[in-house]
Every structure is written in C-alpha cells, then in structure tokens.
Amino acid sequence: MFRDTCRRFAEREIGPIWEKADRESEFPRPFFTAAAKAGLIGIAAPADVGGADLGVYEEAICIEECARVNPGLPNALIIQGVAGGILHDFGTPEQQDLARASINGEKILAIAVTEPDAGNDVQNVKSTARRDGDDWVLDGIKSFITLAGEADVLVLLAQTDRERGREGMSFFAVDRNSPGVEVSRIPTYANRPAPTYRVHLNGVRVPEARRVPAGFRQIMAGFNRERILVSARWLGHMQHAQDWALDYAKTRHQFGRPIGANQSIAFMLAQNQTDIEAARLLAYEAADRWDSGCPIGDLIQQVSCAKLFVTQAVVRVTQSALHIGGGWGLTEELPVMRMALDALVAPVTVGSFEIQLRAIAKQLGLPCD
Ligand SMILES: Cc1cc2nc3c(=O)[nH]c(=O)nc-3n(C[C@H](O)[C@H](O)[C@H](O)COP(=O)(O)OP(=O)(O)OC[C@H]3O[C@@H](n4cnc5c(N)ncnc54)[C@H](O)[C@@H]3O)c2cc1C
C-alpha cells in the first residue's frame, strides 16, 4: 500500500520532469514542494516536528520507488532526512523548527561536511568556527555540497577547537543567504538533477543558538542511516536499469530473433536479477535493524555490507544494461548511458567502498586502518 503510494508519486512527480532537470542540471523546486505535500519528507521524523513517525524501512521504500524513475531527485529527499535528522534528533527547539520547515516543504536543507582536503577523511575538516561574543565566525571551503545553491539552510561541520581533534568539531545551521556565504556550481556527469556546489565561507557570523549541541561522534553515527537510504536508492536504480535491459533484450532483434535469446545476454540478465535480489535483502535487513533500535555498534556491519554490495552491484547491472544496449545504448536516444553514468557515483560517495570494507574488517576484529 505504502509502496504503491510512493510508486504513483514517483511516476507522477518525477517521470515527467527528470529528463529536463538532468539535461539542464537544475533542481526543480516544485518536486520538493510536491514531496512535502505527499508526506514524503520526514517519513521517519517524529510527529512533533511534523514527521510521519514511521521507520527507515518505509523511508527506504520511498527512496527505492523514486529511484526506479530517476536516482537524482530522491537524493534531495535523503539529504532532507540526514540534515533534518541532525536538527530534530540533536537540535534545540529553534533548530527543530528548521527541520519542521523542511518537512513542510518551506525550507530546503543541505548537508555540508566534505572539503577539498576532507573527502572520505572527514576528521580532516579544516573549516573553522571562532567564538566572538554570542556569535561564531566561520571560515573555510566546503566542496561537493548537493543543493547548496538551492538550499535555505546549510547544516555544516566546522572545527571549533583544533586542539581537541574530532571532539572539537560542531555542526551549525547556517542560513545560506548569510553575508560571506558564496556558492559556485561543480559540474558533474552524475547526480545532475540535484546539483552539487563549492561553498566559500568568508567570515560568516552564526549565532551560538545555531550550533547543534551534540558531539561529533554522536552525530556522525547517524550517518549510517544515510548509508541505508543510499543502498535503497541504488537498488531502485538497478531495478530501473534491469527493467529497461529486459525490455530491450526481448524487443531488439538481430539474426532473426530477440537478442535475449542468446544465452550470453540472457545470463547477464539472470546475473543482474541475482544482484538485485541480494541487494534488496541486504538493504532492507539493515533498515529493519536500524528500526529495531539496536545499538549502532551492532548494526555497522550490516549497514556497511549493504552499502558496499549495492553500490558495486549497481555499477555491474548498469554496465550490463549498457552492453545490451549496443551502439544505440551509447546514444542520447536511449536512456541507458545516463543510467550507467549516474551509477558511477554510488561506490565513491557517502563512504567509498574501501571505507565500507575497512568498517567491515574492523567489525571482524581485524586491526585494519
Ligand atoms: C555528486 C556528489 C554529491 C555529493 N554530495 C555531498 C553532500 O551533499 N555533502 C557532503 O558533505 N559531501 C557530498 N559529497 C562528497 C562525497 O560524499 C565524498 O566524500 C567525496 O566524493 C569523496 O571524494 P574525494 O575525491 O574527496 O575522495 P578521496 O577521499 O580523496 O578518495 C579518493 C580515492 O581514495 C580512496 N581512499 C581514500 N581513503 C582511503 C583509505 N583510507 N583506504 C583506501 N582507500 C581510500 C577512495 O576510496 C577513493 O577511491 C558528494 C560527492 C559527489 C561526487
């Protein structure tokens, strides 16, 4: 029932608009408003901030169904969940109001962690926040910040006390139109409907009331939730590519028969299906565990296995689909090259596959660094 609702939403609200958004690399704000109206932002957020108070399992269903149409736009929903989650789980009442505004469709949030020298190595964040009276003054550069150009609020990580390492880091809810915030587009080959930006912070004044009162470790543990949703996103994309490739294999004829009648093509599709089934089990098992409330330490392995497997499998599945598309697959007349390009972002973002392998190895008791 919930899945059907999400599927209908995706077909109605993403189907007609994603190609233009992708071609022009412009985020369509009406999509955000429609998602909020349909109750699809803040699915797992508590009711007192306007959320649906469901689980990450349901959130994953929504993301998967949206990504079956296009993987770029549901990324905007994942980001609202991650940035909003920091604000409603750890924030003050004023900060929780910002999460509520995102859930209502009034404000877009962006999450700003990555920097030019802090990609996977998040602890190397160099942006600084210096206390000045009741304010903090922020300086630095953030990179790859999805929707920074469209966002109303950046939920941004900065060093408040370099001496204390990661204990000296805080998240701030920064109004994007604050004096000293400058954004510029980073053109990418993937993720184009939800564009990504470089953000310069030049003496940006942020009141102490906008500093999230929780520690770095506590907040970063919540990023495991993002990995579950990212797994659901790429699962939906795999299914989309497989649906397309199956249809093409059955309808494209060469040598007087469908190309899918050749065992080599049929086996590729059978292998893809196995990847999809395995990905689904891993992603939803991780979501189930998250919702069961088990301690983070007891679900890291499951989450990293899901993120690792799904983000590698989506590359395999889309590459097979591209091969099945033959020469036409490489043209703009078919959608499969776009699918393959989009998939390439999966294993390198939100903790690359090496980072997931490292997390799993550590869970196995190996002194791996
Ligand atoms: C389209 C897009 C959207 C994004 N959106 C956001 C966003 O909204 N907010 C945000 O904060 N960030 C965002 N990111 C950043 C993203 O999550 C990654 O942090 C970032 O892409 C990492 O890229 P990098 O070039 O800095 O990688 P690097 O960390 O420089 O890694 C380069 C290579 O080295 C490998 N590597 C690094 N460390 C190790 C190690 N210890 N062991 C083995 N191998 C290692 C990596 O796996 C990778 O293959 C986005 C990125 C992209 C591409």
TrEMBL record:
Which residues are in the Acyl-CoA dehydrogenase/oxidase N-terminal domain? 1-97
Segments forming domain Acyl-CoA oxidase/dehydrogenase middle: 110-204
- The leader peptide range reads none
- Write down the required cofactor(s): FAD
Query: Which InterPro entries does the record cross-reference, listed alphabetically?
Result: Acyl-CoA_Oxase/DH_mid-dom (IPR006091), Acyl-CoA_Oxase/DH_mid-dom_sf (IPR046373), AcylCo_DH-like_C (IPR036250), AcylCo_DH/oxidase_C (IPR009075), AcylCoA_DH/ox_N (IPR013786), AcylCoA_DH/ox_N_sf (IPR037069), AcylCoA_DH/oxidase_NM_dom_sf (IPR009100)
The record's GO molecular-function terms, alphabetically, read:
acyl-CoA dehydrogenase activity; flavin adenine dinucleotide binding
Identify the residues that the record assigns to the Acyl-CoA dehydrogenase/oxidase C-terminal domain, covering every copy: 215-364
> What keywords is this UniProt entry annotated with?
FAD, Flavoprotein, Oxidoreductase
Q: Does the keyword Metal-binding apply?
A: no
Is the keyword Flavoprotein in the record?
A: yes
Give the record's family classification. Answer: Belongs to the acyl-CoA dehydrogenase family.
Name used for this protein in its record: Butyryl-CoA dehydrogenase
This chain's source organism reads: Pseudooceanicola batsensis (strain ATCC BAA-863 / DSM 15984 / KCTC 12145 / HTCC2597) (Oceanicola batsensis)
